[in-house]
Inverse folding.
DNA sequence: AGCCAGGCTACCG
DNA sequence: CGGTAGCATGGC
């Protein structure tokens, strides 16, 4: 009996989460993340990405930490002007030039170091795909950045939990206010098909929706759309 | 002027 | 463990 109602509740939750995705997609359309060279490629899920694209996603994910995407994009553009989205060229650049390039993205001392540590790690991979654990072992890569890299650079179905996703699912009553990263991630991954294309769009759509309606407290949008 | 932005690390109790 | 100060810039 208890087992039955639990299963029923689980299916209800599953329908609700899938329905949220459907509504967002219908309302905003495909987002085409991750933007490469500032370009959003809607419905382009070609895989595998080449090395330069992977590095741009990884650097972008690090540079976007705690800052708006426009600012992060300026830093990515500065690096691309220096031809530094190529690994060997980046390594020759030197920390001082990297600091200058990433300045618009804020926290430039930390972020320069993070990019350097990451490039060293990436180079050690010799083209193989890193595990989530390996990524988390890199200084400057936390859970959201690791999942963003696995999802957007390596096309793995890892749900990316960011501040926006937490706000939205919390407001919809699906998670507790102080739910951990792992708890939110599990909620989504247990209730969606493990499809990287779906995860890709879902995360991007949550960001788009939150930027419009969950930007500052109090988050007034009780229901979705 | 001040708040906010697609976090992470180090250090605290 | 969970909680939080510090990190820095720029747009609105």
């Amino acid at each position: 009996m208890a087992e039955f109602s639990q299963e029923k509740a689980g299916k209800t939750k599953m329908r609700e989460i899938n329905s949220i995705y459907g509504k967002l997609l219908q309302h905003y359309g495909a987002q085409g993340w991750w933007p490469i060279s500032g370009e959003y490629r809607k419905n382009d899920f070609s895989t595998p990405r080449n090395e330069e694209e992977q590095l741009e996603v990884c650097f972008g994910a690090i540079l976007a930490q705690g800052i708006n995407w426009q600012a992060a994009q300026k830093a990515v553009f500065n690096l691309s002007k220096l031809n530094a989205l190529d690994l060997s060229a980046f390594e020759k650049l030197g920390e001082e030039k990297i600091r200058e390039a990433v300045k618009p993205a804020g926290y430039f001392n930390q972020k320069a170091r993070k990019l350097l540590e990451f490039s060293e790690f990436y180079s050690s991979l010799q083209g193989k795909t890193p595990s989530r654990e390996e990524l988390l072992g890199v200084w400057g890569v936390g859970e959201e950045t690791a999942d963003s890299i696995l999802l957007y650079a390596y096309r793995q179905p890892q749900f990316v939990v960011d501040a926006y996703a937490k706000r939205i699912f919390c407001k919809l009553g699906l998670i507790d206010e102080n739910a951990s990263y792992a708890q939110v991630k599990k909620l989504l991954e247990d209730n969606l098909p493990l499809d990287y294309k779906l995860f890709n769009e879902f995360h991007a759509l949550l960001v788009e929706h939150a930027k419009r309606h969950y930007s500052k407290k109090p988050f007034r949008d009780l229901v979705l759309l």
The CA atoms of residues 95 and 113 of chain A lie 8 Å apart. The radius of gyration of chain A is 18 Å.
